[in-house]
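Need residues for this backbone.
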């Protein structure tokens, strides 16, 4: 196999898929770091964001990229609303109760999507988009947009977490919640910010999956395991770890088709997840222990 064939058909698609997983995994890692539970509705929120963008595209006739900010804001608002209505009163209960509640929310969100948009496959645009040739590398514009969006969104998040007052408050809640509360940090605002960021990144993840493939009502559910695998691989609670984990999982999935049938490539995320839990539960960058 030639180098460019390997890059064009496996590595580049792996990087794009990994970028999509990374966007979702960052939200998962933030929720676990600050709220201390696994959010099983994460994938279906990503699907909701993708379909909200579709509604804007079909309703207003605008470019999908123009619809993305609307989807991010709407999904962030939905995420905050879900927390207020369903999760807030469970704060003092065992975390497993909230985890199971999030599974119920996943089913509810998916049902809403199927009722409103149906179960048929949708796309943002019709026709075949041919890749451009960049010194032998064949890359589509939408693939560039996906990777650039990951860099911009995660870079902006890192600046927010390290430079802003509320970003530092979120990091304090992640490191030591009891000490953070004693120092006067507003827990409710930190939780709301967490859901705004996680919901927005969810929407971006679902949108770029739909942009690079197709929109399906179940696509977020199929993304859930790879996103969790990415978060755990990089280290739960570490934003840069989620990005690293997402890229590794995405590239591993695409390269796996060289040795196993393509319909089984999703199993790579499961293998990586089990391996990391057994060998290094803190992840590559030493995040929180599950």
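Answer:
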């Amino acid at each position: 196999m030639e180098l460019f064939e390997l890059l064009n058909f496996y590595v580049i698609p792996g990087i794009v898929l990994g970028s999509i997983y990374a966007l979702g995994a960052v939200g998962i890692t933030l929720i676990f770091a600050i709220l201390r539970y696994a959010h099983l509705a994460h994938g279906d929120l990503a699907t909701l964001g993708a379909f909200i963008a579709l509604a804007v595209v079909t309703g207003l006739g605008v470019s999908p990229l123009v619809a993305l900010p609307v989807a991010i804001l709407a999904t962030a608002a939905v995420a905050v609303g879900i927390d207020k209505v369903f999760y807030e009163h469970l704060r003092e209960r065992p975390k497993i109760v909230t985890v199971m509640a999030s599974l119920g929310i996943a089913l509810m969100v998916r049902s809403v999507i199927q009722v409103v948009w149906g179960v048929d496959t949708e796309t943002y645009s019709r026709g075949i988009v041919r890749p451009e040739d960049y010194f032998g590398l064949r890359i589509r514009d939408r693939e560039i947009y996906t990777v650039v969006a990951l860099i911009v969104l995660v870079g902006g998040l890192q600046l927010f977490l390290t430079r802003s007052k509320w970003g530092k408050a979120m990091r304090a809640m992640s490191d030591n919640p009891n000490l953070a509360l004693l120092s006067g940090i507003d827990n409710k605002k930190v939780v709301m910010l967490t859901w705004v960021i996680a919901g927005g990144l969810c929407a971006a993840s679902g949108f770029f999956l739909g942009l690079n493939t197709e929109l399906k009502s179940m696509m977020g559910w199929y993304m859930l395991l790879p996103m969790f695998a990415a978060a755990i691989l990089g280290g739960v609670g570490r934003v840069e770890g989620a990005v690293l984990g997402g890229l590794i999982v995405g590239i591993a999935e695409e390269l796996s088709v060289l040795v196993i049938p393509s319909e089984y490539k999703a199993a790579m995320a499961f293998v990586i997840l089990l391996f990391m839990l057994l060998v290094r539960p803190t992840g590559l960058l030493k995040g929180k222990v599950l």
